[in-house]
Amino acid sequence: MAEPAPDIQLVSGDLTVAIAPSRGGGITAFDCSGCGIFASRATDPSPLGLACFPLLPFSNRIACGRFTADGREVMLPPNHPAYADHPHALHGQAWQMPWTLVTATPTACHLRLDVPAGAWPWAWRGEQWLTLDPRGLTHRIALSNLAGNRMPAGIGLHPWLPRNARTLFRSRHAGEWQTAADGLPLRLETRAEPVDWWRGQPVGTRIVDTVYTGRSGSMTVDWPDRGLALEITPSDRLSFTVVYVPAGADHFCVEPVSHMTDAINRDEPPTVTGLHWLAAGETLAGEVRYAITVEA
Q: How far lies 14's CA from each of 230, 250, 263, in Å?
């Protein structure tokens, strides 16, 4: 049996990124001069303790793990690390599998994960490229269909971000999915043009676990008490945004993803759901740029 890939650290200027290939290919820390850009969750040894993890081959929830693809019934097992009775397949498979470190330099690395057909009845490959420079982190992710027939596909990134009563999240989206208590989408509420659903108020003033559509421009997180700001710029393939703001917590999530929650089970067209179907040998890829501003 191959030895697990060692943890690595990228350093550029005041920025550092720690990556654990053996823990779902996830980021364990992203800091600026020792101050956490991503939320430190080191006390949680489960995949939920990662500061950021990849979402492959789908994002967010598949209702009760069930769907039909080209006449094939698929049943995925529950996989929530903390709740054995959580009924939905969550965040794909990649975040709970060890990745291989392909290459690494002081400022960049390339990770790979090959998954044979199993409960997810298609073989697939995941890849990540992380590049750090003095102004920020560029994180590219790709999903390739290694099966002989087409495969439903989704990608995304799941960073945890620190928050307190003053933390601001600014973004502009045209639609917000209203959800059930378990996070599954019910109906889409839309605006005539993209708006800031927080209206400039601190992120903790809205408790949500949902997905946004019709994003316009970059998103920003501002920590005025820490003198730091983060600009999040996803590529076009990651056109949906999952936002999770739990009540009473010191963290929240802004997840650039390629499709809405439970897209595989929705009746809406792919232009609404974002669901991709990859032909044999085809790849779906996207990237997120995390740019840091240190405020005077």
A: 14, 24, 39
